[in-house]
Amino acid sequence: MNIWEKMMDIDRRWIYLLVGICVLIPLIRPVGLPTFTTPYTQALFDYIDKIPPDGPAILISFDFDPATAPELLPMAQAILRHCFFKDINVLCLGLYPTYIGMIDMALSNVKDDYEAKSGEDFVFLPYVPGVTAVMLSIGEDIKRTFGRDYYGVPLDSLPMMRHIRNYDDIALVLSISGTQLPREWAVLVGTTYHVRVGVGTTAVSAAEFYTFLQTGQFVGMLGGLKGAAEYENLIHAKGYTKKDTRKVASMGMDAQSFVHMLMIVLIVIGNIAYFNIRKKKAR
Amino acid sequence: MKRQIPLIIAFICGIGMIIQFFIPHPVSQKTYEEVLHWQIIVGIFMMIIAVRSLCVVHIDKIRRKKEGWGYSFITLFALAFTAFVGIAFGMGEEFLISDLYQYIMVPMQSTMFSLLAFYMASAAYRAFKARTAQATLLLVVALVVMFGRVPVGERLVPWLPRVIEWILMYPNMAAQRGILLGVGLGMIATSLKIILGIERGYLGGG
């Protein structure tokens, strides 16, 4: 058995150990590598930045659960920070029961930094079954669809809801998702009610949504943890965050960088080993 | 009758909603609004059926002591306990239900998903080989995209992010659009088959 055969026969636990080290070290000691801002992140940032304070609201649909939270929660938090700093009213929606907890987490991590109040700066909508029926029903009458907010307060009594009836009063629907739901938002809601739609998605799903960006059905897109880190950098650069705010996505990007590099090295070594073994067998 | 009535309902609802879409009259609009609310109510009943179905499957597994019946017991216990906590103590960030979510559900789901990174690294090392021309193309593009999507790659090769944007914006998008059009046409065909009673899988019974 030559060295290449031994390399291919390596115990997979060594690879697991290397991945573990590559994730842990940058998380313990962040490197803070700079990130190039993609045009779609910039487009989404610019669109939100131009919404006037206390003007039309943004509806953020938290279409993700804890499995994809490491990528998507920092994204949601960065956008909430942007909105709260600019006094943009936010409607938070979860279309599945497990998504509701993500709204709870994002709001509790962000709202105190900006003294954002429920009913005045944001409204946390409760879970209502139906998914696409709920998406369409908001277009008719949001108060009739939900009745009360997540805390049980009637929507009619909330100051923020006085001027919000349906999508006509919403400047942007932002679907933060690791699923196909952004497509439903663009096709069912964007097309039917002529409301602008944006997307924040996992890196794996991002490739699927380029076609909607090209047609203008999405105003912008945050792709994976990189997109979240880019957005974090943009709001930091504009001074929309406190100085001591942790850049969660940027820290995660360091770990992701190291793991990507490790994967590239492993694939290259694996292929060199494969060709050497094939050459030996051919002889 | 058991099969004909659902088929008639599906036909009337399907055709009715198609016609409604093209009539911008207040009556048509009001009908649409009402149908959306019915759909939400039906969704609530679907949840009741789903819970019942889950209970039936797992109770049967426990009763027959089938392999892994212990997990069924845990599933039913978790369902009952979570529902009890939510109903008895209330919902919101200061309640126990929020702690259950934050300290049990979040770590469990995150752990399951995180394990993918380890398996992917191992699988990529062993199986991602340039065996054929197509596999080589896939391998090269994957390496370029992976390298260019992280800050290290962007720093070492400053023009790489633009190359990746081009790959995603043109070859990727062309393929995605083809898939989307195919899916769209498939959805229309399936919807028509359901409305016209040709596709009857939703009635159950195989």
Please tally the β strands of chain B and state the result: 0
Strand content of chain B: under 5%
How far apart the termini of chain A lie comes to 15 Å
Secondary-structure-derived class of chain A:
alpha/beta
Just name the CATH architecture of the largest domain in chain A.
3-Layer(aba) Sandwich
Average pLDDT, all residues of chain A = 92
What is the ordering of alpha helices and beta strands of chain B?
HHHHHHH
Tell me the series of helices and strands of chain A, N- to C-terminal: HHHEHEHEHHEHEHHEHH
**Class from helix and strand fractions of chain B:** mainly alpha
- Taken from the alpha-carbon principal axes, the silhouette of chain A is elongated
Approximate helicity band of chain B = over 70%
Largest interface by residue count? A-B, 67 and 58 residues
The coarse silhouette of chain B is: extended
- The number of distinct helices of chain B, counting runs of at least 4 residues, comes to 7
CATH topology descriptor of the largest domain in chain A: Rossmann fold
Q: In CATH's first tier, which class of the largest domain in chain A applies?
A: Alpha Beta
Mean pLDDT of chain B: 90
The total number of structural domains of chain A is 2
Radius of gyration of chain B: 26 Å
Rg of chain A, rounded, reads 22 Å
